[in-house]
Amino acid sequence: MVAGATPSELVFTKSVQCNYECPTIYAYTLGLAKVRIVSCGHRLFYCVDEPSLSREDERLVSEIARRSIVAGLEVIPSDPESLRKLASKLGVPYPILARKLPILKYYVEKAVSGYGPLYPLIRDPEVEEIAIDGPGRAVSVVHRRFEVGWMSTNIVLSEEELDVLVMYLARRIGKPVSIAHPYAEGLTPEGHRVALTFAKEVSRLGSSVVIRKHLEKPLSAIQLIEQGIATELLMAYLWMLVDHGKSVLIVGPTASGKTTLLQAILGLIPSYKRIVTIEDTPEFNLFDRPHWDSLVARHSYSKDVEDVTLEKLAKFALRRRPDVLVIGEIRGVEAEVFLQAAATGHAALATMHADSARSAIDRLKGMGVPDYLLDALDSIVVVKRIRRGDSQVRRVVEVVEYIDGSLVNVFQWNPRDDLLTPTSIVEVVKRSRVLRRIADAEGTGEEALREELERLVRLLRRLREEGVYEFKDVYRRIDEIFNVYVAGEFIATTPAPTGK
What we know:
With 500 residues, the protein is an alpha/beta fold. The protein folds into 2 domains: 7-212, Beta-Lactamase (2-Layer Sandwich), CATH 3.30.450.380; 221-490, P-loop containing nucleotide triphosphate hydrolases (Rossmann fold). Helices cover 38% and strands 24% of the residues. The chain is built from 18 helices and 18 strands. The strands form 2 sheets. The chain has a 9-stranded mixed β-sheet. A 9-stranded mixed β-sheet has the order 12-11-13-14-10-15-16-17-18, with helices on both faces. The chain is elongated and about 80 Å long. GO terms for molecular function: ATP hydrolysis activity. It holds the Pfam family T2SSE. InterPro entries: AAA+_ATPase, P-loop_NTPase, T2SS/T4SS_dom, T4SS_GSP_E_ATPase.
């Protein structure tokens, strides 16, 4: 059986009619489905219209879906020979089946997807998050193009439909729900993060769903710069810290872009360095990068199966020869292991929920991190979602360094001008004690420091000017440049053979 296939009654759940009297401000298609963003009463609504089916079409979809699930197929075969065989088995003339193929194909794929009425939202690359607060309430989405927070859709589920959907989604993440275990969280095979509640055991309104969709194409450092989340100088500064074995903690509220920024930094690290990532729920996607070691925590319901916690994995990771240690999200005792790694000279990166650099330090102390280990923390980056006019944007609002128990500001976002300052390399080097420590440790001096930072800024600017935006492309270009540089340095400093 195809994992997560949903019952046919959910496949044919009808969307509520949208208010066509309100103006459509944006429209696009998702195959046969049509999406409209409607502006109504100072609010935006997400309307999805799917093609209509006759009773006979519904019967055909149900039967084809049943056969597909049994056969382990996720799509209808489209070649004439296979389609003729299917038409014969269904008792439908081949010309009719061939004519109806596009609409049948859409609904069969919807049926076997496991997402039921959420199928068009899952397929929509513009939708970032999906939430159902309870039965009879409109499904809500966060849209990438319109950063106005949550907008309601025209999809509404009954109590029975929502209970069924929750149970099937729970199966997709491998954590069944019931009255005894009324909530669950996990990852779907496609990488979407799902958090569920079942019935009214822990959610007063009934079953509920929140899905944070996996970004198939993670954002690169260049794309973050283009979106105004970061600047060339900031990304060069963070890149330089990691390259010189320093620690960076990225903090902010939920959905502020912490993991997005961390992944973008990882895309700047050349392949000759070994990255070990540790996550509770896997989100990082470094594609086919060599020397990437991905470790994931395991949580067990059984006493006979050992829990593999982030703390255990962090300690284990230190024995796997990392050049860069990454913890997806610090929540507790693994914080101490993270800073121990930083104290022993490893580049270390992590995210944590905190509203400011000061609250991040307070949280770390509350987790039992001793003061002497806090000194191993070099830089704290604060990311937030900021309201600007009618929309919300993500911005790095503050970058501070933790120096001898004090917070020293390096970058600060100016809300009036929407500008991250300083913009001068000289000023950044002047403010940054961590960069000056790097110069002192390596005996290079501040002039060499400024030159290195300038080279990284110029490289990022060059990639922007050449239109190199995608994560894979940015990583490959940087990797190519740095591997050539390292090879050249090795050849230049290696003595020639003596000829003996």
